[in-house]
């Protein structure tokens, strides 16, 4: 009796729920990225394929069958950044191992450097690693692996230094690398007035869960990027955002601090 | 929150459409392995 209920109804309900779950995860992954338009395009082609099959149009059906034959490769190529990001999120979970004291120190140094950089109208781009590792981007620049200090940050971004045009990547309480090349965002909704530095800040937050801080060379304005979105901030707001980043990381590894 | 509910509804609708396609239109491939 139960077996019959399962094979008649429950198996289909379970099937639909499992597929819904996978589709939901996929939608969450591509939400807010240019992949949405691509996914809609693929959806339209899928709908035409069904219609062609239903209406029995042989030429169109043949053409679309050839398209879907190569479909897996096409999808893998088109969604390459999203697939990379998804696999990195699955496998690249690292955690911070530093105390509240170190966290406050790093945040203070970053905020002080950003303030000074904004005052001098000196361009600056910082990417702060969270759970997804940024090692490949560190390797695109010059590995440094030093303590984060305001003096070091300001020296790196001081033109015409060799490293001033790239990004600094911060991993935990270490300055991992400078002069790093970050991916440029292709988001069409971003203002055309934004330069490559701001687009790179958005780009890295689209492909990973990193947060980025950017100081404009032209205006000295400070921007904060996360989840593919860019927002102007003042240094106090920035301090709060950064503390939230580090606290969420520290919360996973309880600090060994005696009050 | 609303966005997430919307996405969940879209996910269920798409999954149901896929199920209907596999069962009613592409039924022959269901019993003969993947593809034709």
Folded structure, characterized:
- The complex is a heterodimer of chains A (259) and B (36).
- Chain A has 259 residues and is of the alpha+beta class.
- Chain A is built from 10 helices and 7 strands.
- Chain A folds into 2 domains: 90 residues, no CATH class; 153 residues, YojJ-like (1, CATH 3.40.1700.10.
- A 7-stranded mixed beta sheet of chain A has the order 2-4-3-1-5-6-7, with helices on both faces.
- In chain A, helix 2 packs antiparallel against helix 3.
- The N and C termini of chain A lie far apart (63 Å).
- Chain B is mainly alpha-helical.
- The radius of gyration of chain B is 14 Å and the shape is rod-shaped.
- Chain B starts with a helix and ends in a 6-residue tail after the last helix.
- The C terminus of chain B is likely disordered.
- Chains A and B meet through helix 1 and helix 2 of A and helix 1 of B.
Write the layout of secondary structure elements.
The complex is a heterodimer of chains A (259) and B (36).
Chain A: H1 2-30, H2 35-55, H3 58-69, H4 71-78, H5 80-91, H6 100-119, E1 124-128, H7 135-139, E2 142-147, H8 150-157, E3 167-171, E4 174-180, H9 196-207, E5 211-215, E6 222-226, E7 229-233, H10 235-252
Parallel strand pairs in A: 1-3
Antiparallel strand pairs in A: 1-5, 2-4, 3-4, 5-6, 6-7
Chain B: H1 2-25, H2 27-30
């Amino acid at each position: 009796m139960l077996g019959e209920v399962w094979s008649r109804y429950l198996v289909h309900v379970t099937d639909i729920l499992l597929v819904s779950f996978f589709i939901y995860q996929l939608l969450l992954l591509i939400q807010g990225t240019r992949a949405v338009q691509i996914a809609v395009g693929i959806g339209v082609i899928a709908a035409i394929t069904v219609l062609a099959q239903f209406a029995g149009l042989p030429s169109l059906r043949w053409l679309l069958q050839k398209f879907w034959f190569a479909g897996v490769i096409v999808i893998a190529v088109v969604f390459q950044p999203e697939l990379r990001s998804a696999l990195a999120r699955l496998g690249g979970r690292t955690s911070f191992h530093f105390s509240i004291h170190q966290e406050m120190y790093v945040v203070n140094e970053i905020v002080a450097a950003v303030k000074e950089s904004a005052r001098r109208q000196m361009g600056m781009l910082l990417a702060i690693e969270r759970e997804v590792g940024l090692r490949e981007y560190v390797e695109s620049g010059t590995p440094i692996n030093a303590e984060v200090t305001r003096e070091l940050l300001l020296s790196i971004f001081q033109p015409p230094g060799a490293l001033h045009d790239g990004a600094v990547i911060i991993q935990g309480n270490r300055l991992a690398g400078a002069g790093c090349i970050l991916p440029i965002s292709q988001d069409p909704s971003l203002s055309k007035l934004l330069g490559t530095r701001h687009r790179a800040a958005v780009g890295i937050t689209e492909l990973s869960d990193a947060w980025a801080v950017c100081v404009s060379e032209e205006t000295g304005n400070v921007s904060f990027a996360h989840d593919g979105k860019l927002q102007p901030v003042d240094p106090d707001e920035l301090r709060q955002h950064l503390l939230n980043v580090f606290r969420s990381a520290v919360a996973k590894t309880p600090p060994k601090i005696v009050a | 929150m609303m966005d997430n509910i919307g996405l969940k509804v879209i996910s269920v609708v798409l999954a149901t459409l896929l199920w209907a396609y596999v069962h009613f239109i592409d039924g022959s491939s269901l019993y003969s392995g993947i593809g034709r």
